[in-house]
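Bench log, entry 3. Co-assembly request; chain sequences pasted below exactly as received.
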Amino acid sequence: MTTTTGRRLPAALLALVMAGAVGPFLDNYLLYVLSLIGVYAIFALGYNLLMGYAGQFDFGQGAFLGIGAYASAVLQVKAGLPFAIALPLSGCIAVLFGLAIGVIVLRLSGFYLALVTLGFHQTVVLGIALWGPLTGGFQGMTVPRPTMPGIKDNLLMFYIVAVVAIVLMQAALNILRSRIGTAFVAIRESDIAAQAMGINLTQHRVLAYGMSAFYGGIAGGLLAMLLSYITPEGFGLVETLKVLTMITVGGMGSVAGSVIGAAVMTLSTEMFRLPKVSVEITNGVLLVLFIMLMPTGIYGLYAKLRGRFARSGVIPATSVLPK
Amino acid sequence: MTALQSMALLETQALGKKFGGLVAVENVSLRVAVGQIHALIGPNGAGKTTMLNLLTRIVEPSEGLVYFDGHDMLQCRPHDVVGRGISRIFQHMELFPQLTAIDNVLIGAYSMGRTGFVHSLLASKAARDERMDLMERARQALAYVGLAALAEQLAGTLTGGQGRLLGLARAIVSAPRLLLLDELVAGLNSQEREDAGRLVRRLRDERGITVLAIEHDMRFIMGIADRITVLDFGRMIAEGTPAEVSRNPAVIEAYLGKGRYGHA
Amino acid sequence: MLSSVLVNGVVVGCIYALVAVGFTMIYNATETVNFAVGESLMVGAYLLLTFDKFLGWSYPLALLTTLAMAGLIGFVVFDRLVSRPLMTASMLSRVIALMGLASVMKGTVRLIWGADAIHMSSPFSTKPIVVGPVEISQQEIAIVVVTISVIALLYLFFQHTRIGMAMRATSQNRRAASLMGISVTGVFAAAWIIGTMLSALGGVFLGPLLLVDPDMGSIAFKSFTAVVLGGFGSLPGAVVGGILLGVVENLAGGYIRSDLQIAVTFILLIAVLAIKPTGLLGKPLAKRV
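Structure output for the full assembly:
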């Protein structure tokens, strides 16, 4: 254990190698579920950055998922771009929206912030639905899966998701452990004290929005390819609630929590489903139970047991640095 | 004092603040000389905390000017204040209770870092080196206030006195030229007050930090202040050495007249 | 015709106002932002539908039972089960819990009553009657009249009953109120019961105007905007905001496609927040230092 990245880089590489090695042996359904987990892990990570780390009450995150999905779909289907270009581009398009909403909500807090982000989300979904010629409107649109000769497309999709997820996770870890991550935590805990320490609130809040939008957009772009068929309704409030449940269950304010939450929620809805009990009910019940009984989430509990941290699954800037 | 001797590090000119109809501060012209411990005292509600908020740019003045080291502070945004060399301790501590003591101080060193987004994203060597450097500064600051042993403890679990010292460490890690103290010793026992006083004097003597302290505790102030300004109802009613001020009839009346007097 | 647009606006505004008042009451007493008011409205509609249409009870009985059950749900589920245990936690926790509850309510309704929209008929006729310069139906008159009566009753309640005054005291200063012997938990219960009943009443009115479906709670966004418009935390503001929003929406709806309506509301929200964030009747928020 030498340096920060020194400790994590092998973990990231290890994960990549494992994904690569295990992939060919998994059946289509497992590949699909794992890819879904990867996509939601990215989405949850972005959301966690905003809510858990920077402490912004955002309830419209599903908008970025939708923007990313449709941007990626349109760029590939209508503009004929290969996915390797369409995907990062859709992330960037989502960022533009993220910055816009970040600027709008700059002077707002609490209820007003939540309300505006909710309204933003609904307006975006409406916009997507009404822009018929481009997006196929309420009917939705089909999205082709990336293909490469010699490899079945489920496996290829899994690899793509795995690589993107691991890279983005490392990036998030780097940011959170940096001076910027410190600033986020300070802002969350006390914005007046943060300012007194030289932290530019505006800059950091907008950055948090931009980053969460990017992650949401990339997740959306990948989701579009994974599902192969998207409709505007698929990116409504339910998605925001889903990802909120993920970070609550997994652990707010932590990277590991995002992954755990994504895994737990995806597995429970895809594989262990009670008959007739819908996603809405499962989500809602888990959300209420966790926020009441285990607000720090699974990772928070783990961290507490290992004697590290108290509330909110906060990983402070130095806890992963060597002493 | 000659003009050279009384070089003002911080100067306000006819500074005033009204909140709606309420006059919080009016026509305050304060001069804090370099290397001095200057106290700002007055009964409750005299406008002392508002003065600090004006100086740290959290609040916009209704009138008047503020100069720090010759620079017009009214052009400064709240997050640029520490970069100019002014650090502050808050009355209601504003520590980060869920973080360790060392992390609290590390946040205080934020302004000394330069790592931007790209370097942070890539966790470059420059970023890591800077991090190590800031950690070292944080440790030194903690050691200076005597809390080195509590570095890994959660700030929320510290005692009141320890929390104050932590706030102090967090404020000095950015190597300020002016330190603003807001009721540093409120609620501390006499031993803690003595230690705090000694620490403040050390900061002035060893590090050349100028101090502007808001206080209620008269004995503490008399013990460490070089110069005192007295506010009442937002206006300056007296200024001078501790001896001069304690004899000033207007000051005595301001305190006694309200039936309140700081700790004897 | 302008007058019928105005009438429509006022009528739908009354519904917004009812929900907005319930929401504000709950917030003032418990400092909890109830993002599940929409679902309370939805449950109210479904309950009435069940008693009136499916079980064939008389309308007054169905209505009373609906309101009573709404009050019960407000007390048992909202207050006791979810809100009370989280009173010591952060507001964010309560908000999240209520969002979860909203999701559960929606899913449960979908499970029991199915996802399809159901038509609800009203005991009042929808034929337009000419009253002076306006054309208004019996149903619309009923909505307006009942809303006005409810608001008048609430006013009397707050001014002249012990519980009402206790609620006002608790809204202003919870600690002082409890020190004076007011049962704060009692006030919470009262707020949740009344607030949920008001939302349910909104659902009862809305049902016949639109179709009843599990997603009808999304109309709460309008009530939230109404609260901002009228001034957060102000009960009169909630009423004014609700009715004003209804009218403005209907006026705009004459010129803009109806499916763009949510965008109109959103833009209005942003505009209010940009120009006068405290709303029409709200007080400026004190800045903490």
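Chain C has one domain: 2-217. The mean pLDDT of chain C is 87.
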